[in-house]
Amino acid sequence: MASVWKRLQRVGKHASKFQFVASYQELMVECTKKWQPDKLVVVWTRRSRRKSSKAHSWQPGIKNPYRGVVVWPVPENIEITVTLFKDPHAEEFEDKEWTFVIENESPSGRRKALATSSINMKQYASPMPTQTDVKLKFKPLSKKVVSATLQFSLSCIFLREGKATDEDMQSLASLMSMKQADIGNLDDFEEDNEEDDENRVDQEEKAAKITGWFY
């Protein structure tokens, strides 16, 4: 019931919804001498949510043929929406990490994770529009990879804010009264919660029209 308890802890907290856009510019992957990647894909993910770039060819370097790059002549934009929560008496939002994964795509279309790196979205959230240049170092997941970095710009736009509603509590109470067999795999439910969080503020706007609370 960890996922249910987590949502109960959010009752009374403020929620702010942001749009983030990552504009990929350059991906560097250094490999071992016995292997070269086919095509590379950058996946931006959190639990069940995945935002994939297009597959791009890896170009070996002249000085070091095992250290190659993917360069975007025109940046490829990947967009996500993120809801961040904050206690009414706190100055900062709660942590929420999204992970970048570099994947190799074989000629048959099969993908395998090569390296990973995470960022805390609260560090880039701002009430005013911002754009930040980011150079991210990755942790190899495969013995075939020596190192990897991704350069991109990350823009943030504040969309709206809201708060927990009575409707949320009613749905939680209903969920907690269900039998374990009816609930199914709570790990899957935890993943589904992420999209519920992103839609929560939209529901709150409808409730605001009834309660008289405006943004």
From TrEMBL:
Ranges of residues in domain C2 NT-type: 8-158
Pfam families on file: NT-C2
Superkingdom to which the source organism belongs: Eukaryota
Protein name: C2 NT-type domain-containing protein
